[in-house]
Design goal:
Chain lengths: ~180, ~575
């Protein structure tokens, strides 16, 4: 289990927990359960966790696979800087978010799942992992080849002035016209 | 269209049958609980949420039974062997076992969600009934206790717990509730660690977490033993609920309305899952026995680019072309089994695998082998298999086009060797007279051993004057300027600079139209079989080309695309 990046699994678990919290909350509110306020909280918390966890982090080793359409979420999450980059913050955030959901049966499963995600994030943080945004690679401007760098310094060699004179007796042989008259 | 039916027909049929059984079970049990007389009073408390909880439970029973079966790979091998008579299409279905396992898993997840939500509603409404939130009938029904002449209907008995916490308290103090939470948690952990990202990159996490299924099944069997959901016991004379439901005060006093008695049904799940659980136990036992069998190392070869070849011998091991085995090396990790396609032909008296450095386990294995003294036996190795449908179809065609992309050429090593052996011994099973082999790869790094194999074959064929039996083309799709320059400088040499083979390396992807046209021109009246081991996209391209270049006239060339999953 040497090379495992725990944050990858924590991310999947947290996203799933967010969805479960959301679902449990919706059931609680729609069914007008006793304590539906906790369910309403769970809807908000669940939605927040989903938005936070949707953008996958860039892996330290190997190719990172983005989730569909995650770019805008990446930009939002990136803007919070160290708060979202650090996994200790995430671990404690998820632990704190999960506590109120434990007071209603409909959301208790979401609470436990989010708690587990929090523990895995803690493990990731202890191992020094952090969240990196996956950004599209910028196009590197193509440098011209070396041989193109230095334009020629000298004019091209020209034949001696006698042959450069216009030969009126042989017009076909006069392959080129001098735009500037050549003094003899 | 005909091609689709041949390639996908049986799979679609099986899926339709499976879905049909699911729908049937759902609807049957839904109606049982929604219309049955004995659940009339239960429905009064719970509404249709009762049926919505029981119907997915039935579907869950069915699918939990099914989910263990596709992963019993030794059992599947046994089935495959006994179905030799029933045609390849049937046996090829057994190769899609993991896809089926995943499909059943999705169904279990979906039904768990429905079951869970329905029971959440049920518990909430039981709670409300108990606390008098509903009508008098509900109150009366909920007040029934388990005494000598009454039985309870509402499983929530304690009322001194805080009203909001009662559902949670109830769930955590009943067998059904507690096991339900535990197994749902296990299921969620199994699913999140089985996501493709985790599975492909951190296989160990996936493998070890997946073993939570043991807890899942134990919990599942215990889950229904609580007799919580109760229906009304039939009495003599039969209870007339239409009359009695409005006469609550007279229950027990008038002859038509005795006190209603309720009882829960026995647990059903064990009946469904006990068979597959035993089969799976046998499967793990068989894997263990196979693992204990001695495997001898015949030869250990380190190829360039960190490719390890192991030639192994085991008593009673019989293989077919294109099959794969699972290897386990306790010195590296006692619990991990990893699959490898075999690269030896069945005609050889050993079996071999070529292992590339592709992760923790392979790296450790290569490391151990590199530090072995000359001629010593390697570490203890367990071998499970062989598995997979044999690709015998390859021998049936007069002309074969074999396309291998990247790591997909591995099974072709086995196939090419086998074809050559069969040809040398004039095996009547071999109908192939001409092979076109296309090898596509980004770079030859890690495939030099295959180039060596082709060189050996090329040499042997020249010796026998059979130079045109095998035509192979290598396409380097990852070329750059330096490759091109190098090739330009050496273009007039006899052998190729990259592979050392007589046939020159092509750069870039093949132009399939040209290739198919060439094959058609050289074989004007044959049936050509095309086999691919590579990416799905390429498969689609080849399928289209086969259709395009096939002639309706049976006397002219016809191409058949075989969708093989080596």
């Amino acid at each position: 289990m040497g090379k495992i990046e725990w944050a990858m699994w924590a991310n999947e678990q947290a996203l799933a927990s967010g969805l479960i919290l959301l679902t449990g909350g919706i059931v609680g509110v729609a069914g007008q359960f006793r304590g539906w306020q906790f369910a309403a909280y769970a809807i908000a918390a669940g939605a927040f966790v989903c938005l936070l966890e949707y953008p996958r982090s860039k892996r330290t080793k190997g190719t990172s696979v983005e989730r569909t359409g995650q770019y805008c979420f990446t930009v939002c999450v990136k803007s919070f800087g160290p708060l979202t980059r650090n996994y200790y913050v995430r671990a404690f955030l998820h632990a704190a978010l999960s506590v109120p959901a434990g007071f209603l049966l409909a959301t208790v499963l979401g609470c436990v799942c989010l708690g587990i995600a929090s523990i895995i994030y803690l493990a990731a943080a202890i191992r020094g992992e952090h969240w990196e945004p996956i950004l599209p690679k910028k196009e590197i401007a193509r440098k011209p080849d070396d041989s193109m760098k230095n334009p020629p310094q000298n004019p091209p060699p020209r034949p001696p002035p006698e042959t450069r004179r216009k030969r009126v007796d042989d017009l076909e042989g006069a392959a080129y016209d001098n735009p500037i008259p050549v003094d003899e | 269209m005909g091609n689709w039916i041949i390639n996908h027909g049986l799979t679609s049929f099986i899926l339709v049958v499976w879905m049909g059984i699911n729908i049937f079970l759902f609807v049957w049990f839904y109606l049982l609980y929604d219309l049955g007389d004995d659940y009339y009073y239960t429905r009064h408390l719970l509404g249709s949420a009762l049926a919505w909880a029981r119907a997915p439970a039935a579907v869950l029973n069915f699918n939990c039974m099914l989910i263990l079966l596709p992963v019993c790979r030794n059992l599947l091998s046994l089935l495959r062997g006994s179905f030799m008579c029933c045609g390849r299409t049937m046996r090829k279905q057994l190769d899609k076992n993991i896809s089926f396992h995943k499909l059943v898993a999705y169904m279990i997840a979906l039904m768990t969600a429905v079951h869970l939500i329905a029971h959440l509603l049920n518990v909430e409404w039981y709670n409300n009934s108990r606390r008098g939130g509903y009508d008098n009938l509900s109150m009366a029904l909920s007040n029934l206790e388990d005494t000598e002449n009454t039985t309870y209907l509402n499983p929530i008995r304690k009322t001194d717990v805080d009203a909001q916490q009662t559902p949670t308290y109830f769930v955590f103090t009943t067998i059904a509730g507690l096991t339900g939470i535990i197994i749902t948690l296990a299921l969620i952990l199994i699913i999140t660690s089985s996501m493709e990202v985790i599975r492909r990159s951190y296989f160990e996490v996936f493998w070890y977490t997946h073993h939570l299924f043991v807890i899942f099944f134990i919990g599942l069997v215990i889950h229904g033993t609580g007799f919580i959901v109760r229906g009304q016991r039939t009495t003599i004379p039969p209870y007339n609920y239409t009359l009695c439901k409005d006469r609550i005060e007279e229950w027990g006093q008038i002859p038509q309305c005795p006190l209603p008695q309720f009882e829960g049904g026995p647990a059903q799940t064990w009946r469904w899952v006990i068979g597959p659980m035993i089969l799976y136990l046998c499967e793990r036992l068989l894997r263990f026995i196979r693992y204990m069998q001695t495997v001898q190392y015949r030869k250990i070869v380190m190829h360039p680019s960190k490719v390890l070849e192991l030639q192994l011998v085991r008593d009673g091991f019989k293989m077919d072309v294109g099959q794969y085995i699972f290897l386990n090396c306790p010195a590296i990790s006692p619990l991990e089994w990893h699959p490898f396609t075999m690269t030896s032909a069945p005609e050889e008296d050993f079996f071999s695998v070529h292992i590339r450095s592709a992760g923790d386990w392979t790296d450790r294995l290569i490391d151990i082998m590199q530090h072995l003294p000359e001629g010593a036996q390697g570490p203890k190795m367990g071998v499970d298999g062989p598995f997979g449908t044999a690709s015998e179809d390859v021998f049936d065609y007069e002309v074969s086009m074999l396309v291998g992309a990247g790591i997909g050429i591995t099974p072709f090593a086995s196939i090419l060797k086998s074809i050559w052996y069969k040809f040398k011994t004039s095996n009547p099973k071999l109908r192939t007279r001409k092979i076109y082999f296309y090898w596509l790869c980004r770079e030859t790094h890690a495939f030099e051993w295959f180039a060596d194999l082709l060189q050996v074959l090329e040499r042997e064929m020249e010796e026998r004057g059979m130079g045109d039996f095998l035509t192979y083309k290598l396409y380097l799709t990852g070329w750059d300027q330096s490759h091109a320059t190098h090739a330009c400088v050496h273009f007039d040499e006899e052998t190729d600079v990259v592979t050392g083979l007589k046939q020159k390396t092509h750069y870039g992807r093949p132009v399939w139209d040209k290739e198919f046209e060439e094959v058609r021109k050289e074989n004007p009246s044959s049936v050509v079989g095309t086999f691919l081991c590579g990416p799905v996209v390429l498969g689609k391209v080849l399928e289209k080309k086969c259709a395009k270049f096939s002639d309706v006239d049976p006397r002219k060339t016809r191409f058949y695309f075989n969708k093989e999953n080596f």
